[in-house]
Amino acid sequence: MYRTGAICALLLSLCASGGPAAEPDWNRFPWRGGLSVAGIGGGAWGRFPEAWWYGLASGFAVNAEVDVHCRNCTEFTLAGEATDPAAGDAWFGVELLWNAPLTAGTAYRFVLSFLDDRQLPDLATVNDEIVWRRADGFAEKQEIHLHYVSGEAQGKPRLRLFYRAGADPRTVDLRAPWSARTHVRSETPFAGAGPANELFPLPDTATHIAEDPARRARLLHETYCPAVAYSRPPLPELDRPTADLVVCQRCIGPATGGAFLRMADVQTLMFQPIPWQNETVFSRWADAAAQAGIRNLILPPVLDVRATYDPEWEEGGYRFYHLHSLMNKGAGMVWKYRPDWGPEGNLRMLHTAADQEAALMKEWLRQSPAADLYHFNVEMNGAFGDYGGGIRGTPLRGVAGYEEIREMSRREAFETVFGVFRDYRQRLEAGLGEDVARRLKVMANFDRAGFQGAYAAMSGVDIIIHKCIHRQSLNVVVANSRGTARAYGIEYGYDFDQWDRNYWYGYPPESVRHGLMLLFHTGARYLMNEIPVFDEKAGQLTGWGPMWFDFLRYAKLHPRRGEGQARIAVMRGFGDEWNLVGGPSAGGDSRRCLPMGEMLRSLQDPAPVPSKWAKVAQLPDRPPDAAGGKLWQWLGNVPDDAVYLHDFALLNLVFANFGTEHQTAMNRLCTGTPYGPVDFIPWDTPPAILSGYDAVLYLGRGDGTALAEIANLEDYVRHGGRLVIAAGQLRDLADRVAVDQFCGVRLEGDAHTATGALYTKLQAVEPSTVLGRLPNGDPEAVTVRFGQGTCWLFSGEWLRYWPGDLPAEACRGALGGAEWLTFAPASEWLEYQVRRKPGCWMLPVLNHGRGFYPSGDGPDHGPWTGRITVDLRKLGLAGQPVEAWLVTYVADRQPDPFGLEPIPLTVSPDGQHATADLTVDELAELVLGPSGQARAAFFR
């Protein structure tokens, strides 16, 4: 009866409360001021599942069976039942190993809180001593205070919470309150005699419920952070083209890490000084970088420490800044050290940073005259609402001259922020001079997977880089960067940021490597890492270092990858602020987007479906009252109209069970893609680019669509496209439906249901089908054949405006037939990319079900073995002889580590499909093409 998935996660339901109290005896004595927080890996327990992830909690049962059920990361149900009621007491519960050791002669108070008093334990012990009973213990506001006096020096205390089991199952439903604060341990010196607590150890007959490795992680810092030795021969020079990859290295200093940089042929390095970690002035850093073979320079906004805010700083080093922090009043202690700057101090800092950055770039060119220069806007989404607070919450609103941004329309506010980034670039270019400025490229990354990449292009960025942070979905990261780049003709890349909220060590090396392999095979030209690969003090790599350099060896020697292909697009409107999607460790960031009530109960891991899952994937139901008026109470400051974000749950159709619109599943760093690669494209994607997609799903709601953009969408359908769209996405800046007819459907303006929900009346004038009707008989949605294409048009303000599954059904209809590859048996873990070179196609298939969890030892679904079917029509290979190869890679094989092995291929009688038997361990890269051509084309 045991299911071990979540009993160790029980401790997530605990939160801290209370402060120091003045009490006379051991149970009521003065506590030393403040709270001593037990932290893990630099973080503290509280909103994040530390005890769960790091294996510090486990379950137990005595004469009982326990059924454990976990819903996402925050709801846990434990049902305990006595196995033999006649045998005596029966207990079940949870054990927590507190992270900090105890000091002898010290009294401790552990403060734990629960969702409600029904969840309070019957008994609590510390180091086997009973310190709290439900019958006579103190409980206030669902809190218990566990008082304990440490005798001789002890290690980490072991806390146990006991629940009595009987003949009938006893259910304990624990849910982490969204307002949970940090668990605390208070302490004070104690000289008296402690109480003689009754001992209550677990008997030898107790069953310990092992932690499910899918639901926790080891303390990876201890495993992987010690320095390791590593050596590889230099990269061989191959007589063929290799992948066009620019490695933008961070986290390795050139002074101590020069040998490693040369080993991996890293030529582009970021100067990222932080005074309290690195006091090296730029010239010293530049000398070391040049000696390490670094050619190209990346610079974020920087300020000289002495000149800008701390004249007493001894070294005169530089500090880097996020551009949005220079917008914040008081950032960089300017008001403390430079009160003479006055109200315009923030603008002065912005201008000074641009001037000093230009000076450093020119200094670099004296050492590397042929260098490429990159200005890097670090996590620039922070300027659009200070990490997700909404555009009107931009820190720019506090800068002199920008006070009116609070009263602007959202469109005006966005455009104002765009202008600040463009102005910064212009000032930087002016400081460089015309000749040097031509060699400058501006790059930007976003530390929110869902932040719309189009906003970077609007800000004058040449290279868009989304990144994975807080364990967000890599599929979302990829779609955002690649779609933006394709729509605007700019370059793109990715940043693998291992900083998983407080858990820098939240990814084992194999998990990072696997994510990097996916990012590489999407075809990105730029790859940046924020991985702790190097120990500066030891001058050696950490446990992640060999993984990183082995990956770079693979990537730099891989044959040129060709042009990426994606035939599915998710369109997003101007003003769409879907950026709060976070991983389970993202804490309060995604919480602003969590509605209460029914929506909270929908936050469950989407149930896996064994076969054809993509056609029947379960999506969370929308609350029935979710359209119109005060839809539900929101946490944080997300306005009511942000309910449109619920549309993004539809991404489960193309990214298998990735999560919800506000939280990606912990076990889905990457996930299956049944229909193939997906791009996120902006509202104004040019017609020539738009026509390259088989299906366009318009999700969410923007701040108005221009007539030319509406015409582009209609023309897309007319020429064979498949479009799913809501009437609300056809509104103009005045919030009126901008056209009276769209794709053969008459739009009769605004109407309201009996409950006041706004909608648009639809009347088809072309052959159509009504998909569903509102209670008053008006169409909820119609599908219409228009020209050579098909449009699914909804009457609401966005697709999931009404409850029910019609939006998912419409999306499935548009996606039908979009698959490049199909797999038998079907798998929710297989992702494939599609790349084209003259003479061949490259089809990397990745198996994401190999246990790539935060712990590195999650459930391993094993290699996938089955039959793959390729649609030759989509590859332009129908009706002609075809050959297939499997790419092999042996790191030290000479002269070329890459090779090809033939794969037997069976072509259907009509020449339209080809099948092959295949095993995908972690990665299987296929090469297909005309017989006699594909092999040679792969190496060209």
Number of beta strands = 48
Proportion in helices: 10-25%
Mean pLDDT: 80
Question: Using only CA atoms, what is the Rg?
Answer: 29 Å
Termini separation comes to 58 Å
Keywords:
alpha+beta, 19% helix, disordered N terminus
Task: Give a description of the structure.
The protein is of the alpha+beta class. Helix content is 19%, strand content 26%. The protein has 20 helices and 48 strands. The strands form eleven sheets. Strands 16-17-18-21-22-23-24-25 form an eight-stranded parallel β-barrel. Helix 4 (282-291) links the parallel strand 17 and strand 18 (296-299). Helix 4 runs parallel beside helix 8 (345-367), helix 8 (345-367) packs across helix 9 and helix 13 packs parallel to helix 14 (545-557). The longest helix is centred in the middle third of the chain and has 23 residues, at 345-367. The chain is globular, with a radius of gyration of 29 Å.
Write the layout of secondary structure elements.
Elements: E1 39-40, E2 43-44, H1 50-53, E3 57-62, E4 64-71, E5 75-82, E6 91-97, E7 106-113, E8 123-126, E9 129-133, E10 139-140, E11 143-150, E12 158-164, E13 170-175, E14 184-189, E15 207-209, H2 220-224, E16 246-249, H3 254-263, E17 268-270, H4 282-291, E18 296-299, E19 302-304, H5 305-308, E20 318-320, H6 323-327, H7 334-337, H8 345-367, E21 373-377, H9 410-432, H10 434-437, E22 440-446, H11 454-458, E23 463-468, H12 474-488, E24 491-497, H13 509-521, E25 526-530, E26 534-535, E27 540-541, H14 545-557, E28 563-564, E29 568-572, H15 598-601, H16 613-616, E30 678-682, H17 687-690, E31 695-698, H18 707-718, E32 722-726, E33 741-742, E34 745-752, E35 758-764, E36 768-773, E37 779-786, E38 789-794, H19 806-815, E39 821-824, E40 830-832, E41 835-837, E42 840-847, E43 864-871, E44 882-889, E45 898-902, E46 906-907, E47 913-920, E48 923-930, H20 934-938
Parallel strand pairs: 16-17, 16-25, 17-18, 18-21, 21-22, 22-23, 23-24, 24-25, 29-30, 29-31, 31-32, 32-38
Antiparallel strand pairs: 1-2, 3-6, 3-15, 4-5, 5-13, 6-12, 7-11, 7-14, 8-9, 8-12, 10-11, 19-20, 26-27, 28-41, 33-34, 34-35, 36-37, 37-38, 39-43, 40-42, 41-42, 42-48, 43-47, 44-45, 44-48, 46-47
